[in-house]
Design goal:
Oligomer: heterodimer
Strand order of the largest sheet of chain A: 6-7-8-3-9-10
Largest interface: A-B, 41 and 26 residues
Radius of gyration of chain A: 17 Å
Number of helices of chain A: 9
Shape of chain B: globular
Order of helices and strands of chain B: HHHHHHHEHHHHEHHHHH
Number of helices of chain B: 16
Strand order of the largest sheet of chain B: 1-2
Strand content of chain B: under 5%
Structural class of chain B: mainly alpha
Number of domains of chain B: 1
Strand content of chain A: 15-25%
CATH class of chain B: Mainly Alpha
Radius of gyration of chain B: 21 Å
CATH topology of chain B: ABC transporter involved in vitamin B12 uptake, BtuC
Chain lengths: 241, 328
């Protein structure tokens, strides 16, 4: 690990539920504009890592440091305002609000009252601004999660299975969208099962199994790693091809 | 794809005028209605109670309609308000109108003390508030506190009795509660509360300080109940602890709000006026029939109109609108 210019440092993070160690000493450094894939089989601790960093769970040990400031165990809204945000595997829009109002909730809590229209345009939802949530597809609702995150001027976004259920054309569109975020300096931690999609977006991956890190490094190398193949890719290595 | 300016225009079309006119109408209609009702129906005390229930239903509306937390122990703030204002009149000779405000502050203070209950959710929160209010009742009615609260013997405010003033205050409280709901509904605060109601964690990831926003809603709601209790005590003039710490106050306020439709400005007003009228038409002479009708109303509400009368109305209005669009 280097001392700078690390944007987000996750240091030996451990999360325990009762007697179960869901996350065990997981570490990760990410720089501005970088994209890292977070992969692993179901139950490997991916979502637990996201939830712990984002303040939903309190870690048993370890630290989360954003731009040199420790934010371990801070409340979720403070973490979000500090610059770490996320999307959800099952999208969580505010169902009684319109698309525009959904993003407005974030905008009014941002430091500079960011542009709602701008956030919607970045995820290609501008034309649906005045629509109710019930008229959005699941994929559009996931993009709305992203727009809400963008309106809070994030430095890091955990993108949780954004590509699931998308057509190849939509996958390409989403990949381009994520690349645009990166180019604006936002770091991405992409939780994903589709290796073909990950290849378009990230350069390196963190592979988890049973809450432990079993590999960190380039995606290509991960695909050849014996341990990774054994616990995760053995049955799914063709998924993204 | 619409341009930024077009989106803004769509969001703002008529909204400013609507933001001012709709709450004004929603406030003035019941206020004028109550002011005129006394010339048609001479039972001033009953009208005062009806106005109090409108305010209580609006208080429940702020809490349940905008945060999703059902306060079964709402009567606790009502009782605290009645006692704080009553004791302020008796011990400090405060003018009743000032005492009503002090009663509201008392309700809000107790609301602040009970705010750790927000760690509970759903039925646990409802039961928790109920238990807390019962605990307050037990303390207030305790004979060993007779020197402070007069224990189980209640308060006698006969020296301060003024039915006209109490009725006027109740109407003012109706206006205050409706204005509060209108503000919550149309403000950023209300938008934030609606987001919390839909998904608290998701709201927190949108930067919302969820406990603080809920706390503010809770305080407003508790202050309204405190003032309602103060006016009730003043208008009744002699009351016992069990009359103001009565769980049926919460049940009635909740049912009135749900019947009309929570989350709206008009719903709780309509619900309280209609159901309280039914209550007085048959509930006093034939309470057993009232209980039957009440039970049926609740069952029908849950089955067919979970969003209340206004939800029902909106559903059909939307259907007609869609039909017209299709025909065009």
């Amino acid at each position: 690990m280097t001392d700078s210019p690390v944007l987000l440092r996750i240091e030996e993070l451990t999360t325990v539920f009762g007697g179960l160690k869901a996350l065990s000493q997981v570490s990760l450094d990410i720089n501005p504009g970088e994209a890292v894939g977070l992969v692993g089989p179901n139950g490997s601790g991916k979502t637990t890592l996201v939830n712990t960093v984002c303040g939903l769970y309190r870690p048993a040990s370890g630290r989360v440091i954003l731009e040199g400031t420790e934010i371990t165990g801070h409340r979720p809204h403070l973490i979000a305002r500090a610059g770490i945000n996320r999307t959800f595997q099952i999208p969580k829009p505010f169902k009684d609000l319109s698309v525009y109002e959904n993003v407005r909730v974030s905008s009014i809590h941002s430091r500079t009252h960011t542009s709602i229209e701008g956030a919607l345009a970045r995820v290609n939802l501008a034309e649906l601004a005045n629509h109710p949530i019930s008229e959005l597809t699941a994929a559009q609702q996931k993009r709305l999660d992203l727009a809400r995150a963008l309106a809070l001027e994030p430095k890091v976004i955990f993108v949780d299975e954004l590509a699931a259920g998308l057509t190849p054309g939509e996958l390409h569109e989403v990949a381009e969208m994520l690349k645009e975020f990166q180019s604006s300096g936002i770091a991405l931690i992409v939780v994903e099962h589709l290796m073909g999609f990950l290849e378009q977006v990230v350069s390196s991956v963190l592979v988890l199994s049973a809450g432990r890190t079993i590999f960190t490094g380039p995606l290509r190398t991960a695909l050849e790693d014996v341990e990774v193949k054994r616990v995760f890719l053995g049955g799914e290595s063709d998924a993204g091809n | 794809m619409p341009k930024t300016a077009e989106i803004k225009t769509l969001q703002n079309t008529g909204s400013k005028t609507k933001t001012l006119i709709s709450p004004a109408i929603a406030t003035l209609v019941p206020v004028i209605g109550f002011a005129l009702a006394i010339h048609v129906y001479s039972n001033e005390l009953l009208l005062t109670y009806m106005a109090i229930y409108v305010a209580l239903a609006q208080g429940v509306n702020i809490m349940y309609g905008f945060t999703g937390y059902l306060p079964f122990g709402y009567f606790g703030f009502f009782g605290v308000g009645a006692y704080v204002s009553g004791l302020a009149m008796l011990n400090y000779n405060l003018p009743p109108v000032v005492a009503v405000i002090v009663g509201g502050l008392g309700g809000a203070l107790v609301g602040a003390i009970l705010s750790p209950l927000f760690r509970l959710r759903g039925a646990y929160f409802a039961i928790g508030t109920l238990a807390a209010s019962e605990a307050i009742y037990t303390i207030v009615a305790n004979p060993s506190l007779q020197s402070i609260t007069n224990g189980p013997y209640g308060l006698n405010l006969a020296n301060y009795y003024s039915s006209g003033m109490a009725y006027g205050s109740a109407i003012a409280l109706v206006a205050i509660s409706i204005i509060a709901v209108s503000y919550v509904r149309g403000s950023r605060f209300g938008l934030t509360l609606k987001a919390i109601r839909d998904d608290p964690y998701s709201a927190s990831m949108a930067g919302v300080n969820v406990p603080r926003q809920r706390f503010y809603a809770w305080l407003i709601s508790a202050a309204i109940a405190g003032m309602a209790g103060s006016i009730f005590g003043w208008a009744t003039s002699v009351f016992y602890p069990q009359a103001v710490f009565d769980s049926s106050l919460s049940v009635l306020a909740i049912v009135f709000a749900l019947f009309g439709g929570v989350g709206s400005v008009w719903g709780p007003t309509i619900g309280a006026v209609l159901l309280y009228s039914v209550y007085n038409a048959i509930g006093i002479s034939n309470p057993e029939y009232f209980q039957l009708i009440y039970g049926l109303v609740i069952v029908l509400l849950v089955l067919f109109a979970p969003r209340g009368l206004l939800g029902f109305w909106n559903f059909f209005a939307q259907k007609i609108r869609r039909k017209r669009v299709t025909n065009d």
